[in-house]
Design goal:
Blueprint: E1 3-7, H1 11-23, E2 27-31, H2 34-44, E3 48-52, H3 60-70, E4 76-80, H4 85-93, E5 98-101, H5 106-134, H6 145-158, E6 164-168, H7 174-183, E7 192-196, H8 202-210, H9 227-230, E8 235-239, H10 246-258, E9 260-261, E10 270-271, E11 275-280, H11 284-290, H12 295-301, E12 304-308, H13 318-331, E13 340-341, H14 346-351, H15 357-371, E14 376-377, H16 379-386, H17 402-419, H18 421-427, H19 432-450, H20 455-462, H21 466-475, H22 485-488
Parallel strand pairs: 1-2, 1-3, 3-4, 4-5, 6-11, 6-12, 7-8, 8-11, 13-14
Antiparallel strand pairs: 9-10
Length: 491
């Protein structure tokens, strides 16, 4: 229910205005004094204000100015029986939505308030939509069957309002798929709101999602809308939902079931109509088995599942992506000093593993565009950037015996691995991901010990940033493998 604040010293006018707005279904707060009205404005943040210029304790123009400092987006309509055209112009320039002279026409007041509310609602949507559109990237790039199938599924799923769960490695383009679903849907004119659940601290995520009332906690100086409320009518993208706590998962589940929630510190219920798209780089089925994710929330979200293949599994898309990013960054070069790439350098791109997927490829092409503008990128340039030897990525001039030589080398290496007790413990792990994690954990523990548990020295030795190494220690749960590591690690 939308709320109207009326500030006028004439009781008869307050009562008349209260009556027409209550009849129209509005919530009404009325006040005789300006300073008290300003306090109510700050606490309640009404949807619109009717403000008299002449008040017993203050100047309405000063109150208007103070309201603008608190929230300039709330429309304020000035009313007065003792003003001239100069005063009206002054208030409009100061941010008032309109100016109405007394004696008031109740019909005009009602129409003006309704128009102000519609204007404000459209303006909010325009701002939110503009922000989301500015962040919207181009369509999915690639000619592989996997990309063609993905595009086809997006078009089919976009017509529905059913929840969607997108799974894929980091950098594969989960948010891009979510945006494509939104902008191909009937909700395309409404906001697309995204939140990275892993990036928001646990003590703040509830406020970020559901908003809060003034005074709900220290620092909550005014009411704030949360992501759910901002996404009303549009799409809410919950990225990295697999990292959300069980407590917050239960709150998300309740909103999915009831389509309503309460702001933090609030008592009134807010109804919401938003399509939910969630994404994760984890196997939520595995997380359910570990007790880290609610099965009921999983089934609520997984109505239409999407899986995005890693770039290394669709190598035929790599040349298309390389050309696309080169064109994109060349267009952004203000000096018009463009980069090109040698044909034989493309093999290195195609044979590289791209553990960071499309994001990693995009970053490398952007780096070339900045550091090598006006140049032709050679095979050696690519090898240096990818930190590999040219021989590791093959050679276009190799004869047909190349595959046989590779197979022979692989068989030889596998034999060595099977005979090596150190390697065999990783070979016995059935999951490639878990085997890599086990090796990385052992490797980091070993290097930490070699460097007397000094994170900075260890990071430098193994070619990582200190911050990334610290994050890997936490993610790989290394502190549980080394007794009192927190006390031993030297900052």
């Amino acid at each position: 229910m939308k709320s109207i604040l009326i500030i006028d010293d004439e009781e008869s006018i307050r009562k008349s205005l209260e009556g027409i707005f209550i009849d129209e279904g509005y919530s009404v707060i009325s006040e005789e004094f300006g300073e008290e009205g300003l306090k109510i404005f700050s606490e309640k943040l009404p949807n619109a204000v009717l403000l008299d210029i002449w008040l017993p304790d203050s100047d309405g123009i000063n109150i208007l100015n103070s309201m603008a400092k608190i929230n300039k987006n709330i429309p304020v309509i000035m009313i007065s029986g003792h003003s001239d055209i100069d005063t009206a112009i002054k208030t409009i320039k100061m941010g008032a939505y309109d100016f109405i002279e007394k004696p008031l026409s109740l019909d005009r007041v009602l129409i003006t308030v309704e128009n102000a509310l519609k204007f404000n609602e459209l303006n909010e949507k325009k701002i939110t939509l503009a922000q989301s559109t500015l962040r919207y990237e181009d369509e999915l790039i690639g000619n592989s069957d996997k990309i063609k199938d993905l595009k086809n599924r997006i078009l089919k799923a976009a017509v529905s309002d059913a929840p969607i769960l997108i799974t894929g490695e980091n950098g594969t383009g989960k948010e891009l798929v979510a945006k494509s679903l939104h902008f191909n849907s009937s909700r395309r004119e409404e906001p697309f709101i995204a939140i990275n659940c892993a990036a928001v601290p646990e003590d703040l995520i509830e406020s970020e999602l559901f908003g809060h009332e003034k005074g709900a906690f220290t620092g909550a100086l005014a009411r704030k809308k949360g992501k759910f409320e901002l996404a009303d009518g549009g799409t809410l993208f919950l990225d990295e939902i697999g990292d959300m706590s069980l407590r917050m998962q239960s709150k998300i589940l309740r909103v999915l079931q009831d389509n309503r929630f309460q702001r933090v510190g609030g008592e009134s219920t807010v109804e919401v109509n938003a399509r939910i798209i969630a994404a994760t780089n984890k196997s939520l089925e595995d997380e359910i088995k570990k007790g880290n994710f609610r099965s009921d929330l999983f089934f609520r979200l997984n109505v239409i599942p999407f899986f995005i293949s890693p770039l290394r599994e669709r190598k035929e898309d790599i040349p298309v992506l390389v050309d696309y990013f080169i064109d994109k960054f060349n267009l952004g070069n203000k000096q018009k000093l463009y980069i090109t790439i040698e044909d034989n350098a493309m093999e290195l791109f195609k044979n590289y593993l791209w553990m960071g997927n499309v994001r990693e490829l995009k970053n490398i092409i952007e780096r070339f565009a900045i550091m090598h503008y006006g140049s032709k990128i050679t095979k050696q340039d690519v090898a240096d950037e990818l930190k590999i030897g040219i021989e590791e990525c093959g050679n276009n001039n190799e004869d047909n015996n190349g595959d046989d030589r590779i197979n022979s080398k692989l068989e030889s290496n596998i034999s060595v691995y099977q005979d090596n007790k150190t390697i065999s413990k990783y070979i016995d792990i059935n999951s490639l991901r878990k085997a890599k994690e086990a090796f990385e954990r052992d490797y980091i523990i070993l290097k930490l010990k070699e460097n007397n548990f000094n994170i900075s020295n260890t990071a430098k030795k193994i070619g990582m940033s200190r911050r990334n190494l610290h994050n890997r220690i936490i993610l790989l749960n290394i502190d549980s493998h080394i007794h009192n590591i927190n006390a031993e690690i030297k900052e």
